[in-house]
Amino acid sequence: MSDYGKELILDLHNCNSGLFTRKNIRKYFKKICNLIDMERGKLCWWDDLYTPEEEKETEPYLVGTSAVQFIKTSNITIHTLDILKKVYINVFSCKDFDENNVIQFSEEWFEGDVIHWQTIRRM
Predict the structure, then answer these.
(1) Which region holds residue 47: left if phi is over 0, alpha if psi is between -120 and 50, else beta?
(2) Which region holds residue 64: left if phi is over 0, alpha if psi is between -120 and 50, else beta?
(3) Residue 29 sits in a domain of what CATH number?
(4) Which residues contact 121 (CB under 8 A, 6 or more apart)?
(5) Total domains in the fold of the chain
(6) Mind listing the pLDDT tens digit for each residue in 54-76?
(7) CA 64 → CA 20, 37, 41, 57, distances in Å?
(8) 123 or 1: whose pLDDT is higher?
């Protein structure tokens, strides 16, 4: 049985949380898709951008933005934790890509440190 594809799991810490905006994350998705030659589809957000101030999250592990960039061959997800200055990224695709390019680009883009990364082959 051949591989279906792969998933890169990437954890970045000590990031510049000023970069955790929708505008910057949207740019990140565009550039990362160009870098690994993926065709972008719908982009979905989960955050409290339009939430009344009294209803916004305050727990460090909940304050941030999550987004899913659908791509023709699957998806790229990102979860930012603003207070903790962390970014969690998953790139899943049945089309091959160079995970080293994703790791280096993401580390530079979010001005953080790669704490952990792993590539999983999907069957």
Answers:
(1) beta
(2) left
(3) 3.60.90.10
(4) 3, 5, 6
(5) 1
(6) 888 888 888 899 999 999 999 99
(7) 8, 28, 23, 9
(8) 123
